[in-house]
């Protein structure tokens, strides 16, 4: 590799100390680097001019920074190397003290790329007739969450897979997770951990009003629909859809979210041979016991 885009979360590297160190190391090796703050990636005219030259995005921050970058760059087929400046850092491949060693591996093309499934959610608002209120589409690397809004009461959701009703569910909401997101909110809600290479989606209820809540694992090629029901005859539902915990869209009774595999994958650079189970032991430790 010869051309690198460095994307920095300014809250994690406030004085750009590590950013400048990486930039200097790349330039010393006779390679080219371009800098971008995470807040200026989308809509950055300069970035659009150089994006065709970039072979790798080096992302400094936590998992949230890497997820945002994955969404911003998903259509450009650029692999991402995450440098962990956060806490757990499931998606980050290296820690700060291994940066120079990692750069040497990139210079020598000693790495492999792991494709991570992304999902696409299409929000269809119901206004006067059957879902005629327009469509809003967002993508997610971790998950799409449909949940009750604020301090509203529990919500009712109809969950369908390939147009077959799976369940009419009452509770705080539901998580539709990718394998990457299975160690995030899905895990906290009691859902299963899924290997990152699996072509699946996980449907996990949030605080279900039931004695037997269960997660459901479906194929990544399946089509999931979540319909917002009216909880009570006199009460309109108040809910929202969240994409990777960032973009939020308000939902009302009879709105629907259609979820399927996204057109693009996220490509993460792997430098070690560590498997998913070793990573889980290191990142979660005794929390798995």
Would you mind describing this structure in some detail?
With about 290 residues, the protein is α+β, with helices and mostly antiparallel strands. It has 2 domains: about 5-115 and about 265-289, Probable inorganic polyphosphate/atp-NAD kinase, domain 1 (Rossmann fold); about 120-260, Probable inorganic polyphosphate/atp-NAD kinase, domain 2 (Tumour Suppressor Smad4). About 20% of the residues lie in helices and about 40% in strands. It contains 6 helices and 18 strands. Strand 3 (about 55-60), helix 3 (about 65-75) and strand 4 form a beta-alpha-beta unit. The longest helix is centred in the first third of the chain and has 12 residues, at about 15-30. The model has no long low-confidence stretch (mean pLDDT about 85).
Shape call: elongated
CATH architecture of the largest domain: Sandwich
Estimated structural class: alpha+beta
| Biggest sheet record | 11 strands, antiparallel
Mean pLDDT over the full residue set: 87
Number of domains: 2
Total strands: the figure is 18
| CATH-level-4 superfamily name of the largest domain | Probable inorganic polyphosphate/atp-NAD kinase, domain 2
Number of helices: 6
Estimate what percentage of residues fall within beta strands: 35-45%
Low-confidence segments, given as residue ranges, are none
- For the termini, the CA-CA separation is 41 Å
Helix fraction by DSSP (H/I, runs of at least 4) = 10-25%
In the CATH scheme, the class of the largest domain would be Mainly Beta
Topology-level CATH name of the largest domain = Tumour Suppressor Smad4
Order of helices and strands: EHEHEHEEHEEEEEEHEEEEEEEH
Radius of gyration from the alpha-carbon trace, in angstroms: 20 Å
């Amino acid at each position: 590799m010869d051309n690198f885009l460095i994307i920095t979360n300014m809250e994690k590297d406030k004085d750009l100390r590590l950013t400048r160190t990486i930039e200097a190391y790349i330039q010393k090796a006779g390679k080219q680097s371009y800098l971008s703050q995470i807040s200026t990636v989308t809509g950055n005219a300069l970035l659009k001019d150089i994006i065709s030259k970039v072979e790798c995005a080096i992302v400094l921050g936590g998992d949230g920074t890497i997820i945002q970058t994955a969404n911003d760059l998903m259509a450009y087929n650029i692999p991402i190397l995450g440098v962990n400046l956060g806490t757990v850092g499931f998606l980050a491949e290296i820690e700060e003290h291994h940066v120079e060693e990692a750069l040497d591996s990139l210079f020598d093309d000693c790495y492999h790329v792991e494709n991570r499934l992304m999902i696409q959610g299409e929000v269809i608002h119901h206004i006067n007739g059957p879902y005629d209120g327009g469509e809003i589409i967002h993508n997610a690397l971790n998950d799409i969450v449909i949940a009750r809004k604020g301090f509203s009461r529990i919500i009712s959701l109809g969950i369908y897979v390939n147009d077959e009703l799976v369940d009419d569910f009452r509770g705080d909401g539901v998580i539709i997770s990718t394998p990457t997101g299975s160690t995030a909110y899905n895990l906290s809600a009691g859902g299963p951990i899924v290997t990152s290479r699996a072509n699946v989606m996980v449907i996990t209820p949030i605080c279900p009003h039931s004695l037997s809540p269960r997660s459901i694992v479906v194929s990544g090629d399946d089509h999931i629909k979540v319909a917002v029901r009216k909880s009570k005859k006199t009460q309109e539902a108040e809910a929202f859809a969240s994409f990777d915990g960032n973009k939020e869209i308000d939902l009302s009774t009879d709105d629907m979210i259609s979820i399927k595999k996204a057109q693009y994958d996220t490509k993460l650079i792997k430098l070690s041979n560590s498997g998913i189970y070793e990573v889980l032991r290191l990142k979660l430790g005794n929390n798995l016991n």
